[in-house]
């Protein structure tokens, strides 16, 4: 019943890896999706966000205006810390509930937590394997421009707001190189899946 963390910088191909692992039978718990769920109207997280940053963070229907919130906190370390203090505990609790439910349903399940902010928020959790999706910064910047329509300046700012690649690579048990063709990425994921028990055992022996 391995509990696996999957992380990577923006536009690193992490979602492609997660989809392939799901095809192999892994249970994927998506941190970004959990954030959206805990921020739903009527919950304490959204109320705390509005109370901290103002009611103009809410849309007319009472849901979170994510663009307004992103604009409010972007580049403001204190505001980001305030937001994280509201959101992270709720996400941590909900993710733990999802992990427990997955293992209760299948004690032999492989549960993969797809989490962008692993280094920033969850690196000390008891993972049995840490997978890092990695591509050079110039490749990821090009993807942000060509595939997501960002300007070069916005792409650079998004990447600069995250921890350096070296910080993720330092905690990796397995690095999936996503700089090449997608078939190459999928081949690496397939090999990882075939040797998953060995990777988990190697991390356990090293700890």
Automatic annotation (TrEMBL):
Descriptive protein name: Dephospho-CoA kinase
Metabolic or biological pathway, per its Swiss-Prot or TrEMBL entry: Cofactor biosynthesis; coenzyme A biosynthesis; CoA from (R)-pantothenate: step 5/5
Catalytic activity: 3'-dephospho-CoA + ATP = ADP + CoA + H(+)
EC number(s) on file: 2.7.1.24
Gene symbol of the encoding locus: coaE
Residue sites binding ATP per the record: 11-16
Enzyme class: transferase
Homology family: Belongs to the CoaE family.
Alphabetical list of HAMAP family matching this protein: Dephospho_CoA_kinase (MF_00376)
Function: Catalyzes the phosphorylation of the 3'-hydroxyl group of dephosphocoenzyme A to form coenzyme A.
């Amino acid at each position: 019943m391995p509990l696996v963390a999957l992380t990577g910088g923006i536009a690193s191909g992490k979602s492609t890896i997660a989809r392939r692992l799901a095809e192999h039978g892994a249970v994927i718990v998506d941190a970004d999706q959990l954030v959206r769920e805990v921020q739903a109207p009527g919950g304490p997280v959204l109320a705390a966000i509005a109370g901290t940053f103002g009611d103009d963070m809410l849309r007319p229907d009472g849901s979170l205006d994510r663009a307004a919130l992103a604009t409010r906190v972007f580049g403001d370390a204190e505001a980001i810390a305030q937001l994280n203090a509201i959101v992270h505990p709720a996400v941590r609790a909900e993710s733990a509930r999802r992990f427990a439910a997955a293992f209760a349903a299948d004690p032999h399940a492989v549960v993969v937590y797809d989490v962008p902010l692993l280094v920033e928020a969850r690196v000390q959790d008891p993972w049995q394997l840490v997978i890092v999706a990695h591509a050079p910064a110039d490749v990821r910047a090009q993807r942000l421009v060509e595939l997501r329509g960002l300007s070069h300046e916005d792409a650079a700012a998004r990447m600069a707001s995250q921890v350096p690649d070296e910080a993720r690579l330092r905690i990796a048990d397995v690095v999936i190189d996503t700089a090449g063709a997608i078939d190459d990425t999928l081949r690496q994921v397939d090999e990882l899946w075939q040797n998953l028990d060995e990777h988990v055992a190697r991390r356990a022996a090293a700890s």
